[in-house]
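Predict structure. Chain length: 214.
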Amino acid sequence: MRKGLRHSKPEPRAWQRMLSGRRLDLLDPSPMDIEIEDIAHGLARVARWNGQTIGEHAFSVAQHSVVVEEIVAHIKPAVEPRWRLAALLHDASEYVIGDMISPFKAALGVDYRTFEERLETAIHVRFGLPAKTPAAIKALIKKADRACAFFEATQLAGFSHKESLAFFDAPPKGYSLTIEPLSPALAQERYLHRYEILSEAAGYQPHAQAFDTE
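Prediction complete.
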């Protein structure tokens, strides 16, 4: 073959087409290519615990996120709506990368974390939140996340009460939860509804429903 006629191998595709029509660059995600409808649709179809739960439906990340936002409000009732929105979006990156269990995340190491953080930053910017969540708010959301995991572990994933306490700590006082996994369609609807309420409140417009809990 003559010099100059050899074709180089094309670069592998590094974007995903969403149902909204957006093409999200996975290596350099742009806030402009992120839509809440895509997030809600994806999270409602991503199963917590790799799907290893009881019930007719998987317990979706969308439903988990709504519960976490509710627990944040229980722990700190006066928390600003924008931070409740941050709680709702705390796992939003999983609409692209899925819900990897913690041991697998640890095994993948820093490159995975860097990718996840880059996507989380783009999501925050898209929805008007600070690119980086303040440490105190991040700790609050993490506490609520672990509380939700406690209930999931004991009610859906086959963990004993003792095991759940060891891995996730006790849930906050005065808060109880009975989990009924929702269908993807209903989980998506509830996630979007909660987003609409909180995003309006986080835009600094009064909205009494923003302080409701389900």
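Summary: The first strand starts at residue 15 and ends at 17.
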